[in-house]
Task: structure prediction
Amino acid sequence: MKKFLFIVAIVMMVASCNNRAEQNQAEETVTNEMTQDEATAEAASEAGQDDGWMKQSTIMSAKPMVVDFYATWCGPCKELAPILDEIEQHHKGDVIFERIDIDQKPELAQEFHIEAIPMLMFITPEGEYQTIVGVEKPAVIEAKIAELLTRSAK
Result:
């Protein structure tokens, strides 16, 4: 049960961070016209039914997830980034990839007891997870993702 609550907390925090980033980006982009869907979503949000976070959480909980805890000053993190970019492109749509800068989100690093970076967390929709600390070969990461997808399909 603790594992499940831990994973739910990650999903909620990541979704919240992403939602805030999307809101900030949306505020920067000013448009004069709204589509019907945008108007409906805005009306729902104003009515207290903001489905942005809920929709994101539902998507996240339905798919396996890879979370990369990193820092911009970290040499091994910089080495791992292009590897993850390539792997992410290969698994687009199957696995959700999130990157969390521990300097930008120290509360997440503290909550999840991140003591070394880079750290990859592989999370099933059921809340089971495994971690890798340090830079690994792409084949090792791919194997973990394959295992993650297999476990998630059961």
Notes: The beta strands are 65-70, 96-101, 119-123, 129-133.
